């Protein structure tokens, strides 16, 4: 994925005489406290509940227990989807991002590794103390989805103490541990959050506020590109015969659409929390209003697209909603990458955000 490359200056070109410049440190602090920390806290709670539900399934197998574990998976995926577009900071340490979700996996590396572990009952893969040393494709949501929803997963409701369930519990525990570690790292008052929110000449990562805000803007610009070009277009073809339903993320668990909706909902939460709209002149506030409307419309368009991806793609009405989602993400890319960037002068100076 291309990394956002926008040049800022430190000039304070206030767009309206009545409007004060907004310190970049305030924008970043608001993003951290208003969205990032609470969202990672929510993810950690959901992941912990997922781990408990899989452990309960292993101890007392039943259809109800399997359903509960699958529901826990869906809730954890939703929590993850809301923060997964923030691809910097603590999630980048120790390969955590890839360990949480190895995707795209066009060559099916993760699937083959999980299937091999199940076939051979690999003891290391089902060992909580050793899983962190296994392939990243074995450690996160992709692997757990196959355990809970893949071929022969229905047997989890029948037999106690099976290798498959043990493997699932270990992977779920790994997801919970990583989620908790990232949450704690963001809450560390001397950790990455402090570095990002306090740019300056002595800061080796963010030498000024412009660099700090560039990181934030990259979440929106690069994130929308990834959602549209990798997630959506990875399975939605230009016409039905070019569709690739099994290239859709979470197709086994029928969570593809819910994840796409949560991606936009997460961007919406981050946008509101950062209060970037306050840095706009009154005449340009329409940009922020349009962003809010489009984010909500995009999420609503796909939120209720339940059922197998293949069925969604062959239903013309539901397929149109996926097409509309793609149109919305393109519109949002223009709003963030052209309109908002242009209003702030991102190629010549971030006019409403000072460098303090």
Automatic annotation (TrEMBL):
Keywords from UniProt, A to Z, are: Lipoprotein, Signal
Location in the cell: Cell envelope
One Pfam family for this entry, by name? Peptidase_M75
Q: Which InterPro entries match?
A: Imelysin-like, Imelysin-like_IPPA, Imelysin_sf
Q: Which residues form the signal peptide?
A: 1-20
Instruction: Respond yes or no to whether keyword Lipid biosynthesis is given for this record.
Output: no
Which protein, by its recorded name, is this?
Answer: Lipoprotein
Q: Which organism is it from?
A: Aquamicrobium ahrensii
């Amino acid at each position: 994925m291309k990394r956002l490359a926008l040049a800022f200056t430190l000039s304070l070109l206030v767009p309206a005489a009545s409007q004060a410049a907004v310190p970049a440190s305030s924008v970043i602090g608001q993003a951290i406290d208003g969205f990032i920390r609470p969202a990672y806290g929510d993810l950690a709670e959901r992941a912990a509940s997922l781990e408990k539900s899989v452990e309960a399934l292993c101890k007392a197998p039943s259809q109800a227990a399997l359903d509960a574990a699958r529901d826990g998976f869906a809730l954890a995926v939703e929590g993850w989807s809301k923060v997964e577009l923030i691809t910097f900071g603590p999630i980048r340490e120790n390969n955590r991002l890839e360990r949480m979700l190895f995707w795209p996996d066009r060559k099916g590396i993760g699937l083959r590794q999980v299937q091999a572990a199940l076939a051979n009952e690999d003891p290391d893969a089902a060992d909580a103390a050793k899983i962190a040393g296994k392939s990243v494709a074995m450690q996160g949501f992709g692997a757990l989805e196959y355990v809970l929803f893949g071929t022969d997963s229905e047997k989890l409701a029948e037999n106690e103490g099976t290798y498959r369930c043990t493997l699932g519990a270990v992977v779920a525990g790994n997801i919970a541990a990583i989620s908790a570690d990232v949450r704690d790292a963001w809450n560390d008052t001397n950790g990455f959050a402090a570095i990002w929110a306090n740019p300056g000449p002595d800061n080796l990562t963010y030498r000024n506020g412009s660099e700090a805000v560039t990181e934030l803007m990259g979440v929106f610009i690069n994130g929308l590109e990834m959602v549209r070009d990798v997630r959506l277009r990875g399975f939605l073809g230009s016409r039905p015969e070019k569709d690739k339903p099994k290239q859709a993320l979470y197709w086994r668990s029928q969570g593809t659409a819910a994840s796409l909706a949560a991606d936009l909902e997460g961007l919406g939460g981050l946008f509101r929390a950062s209060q970037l709209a306050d840095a706009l002149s009154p005449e340009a506030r329409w940009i922020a209003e349009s962003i809010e409307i489009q984010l909500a419309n995009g999420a609503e368009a796909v939120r209720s697209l339940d059922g197998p991806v293949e069925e969604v793609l062959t239903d013309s009405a539901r397929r149109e909603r996926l097409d509309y989602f793609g149109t919305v993400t393109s519109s949002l890319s223009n709003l963030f990458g052209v309109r908002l960037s242009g209003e702030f002068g991102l190629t010549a100076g971030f006019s409403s955000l000072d460098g303090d």
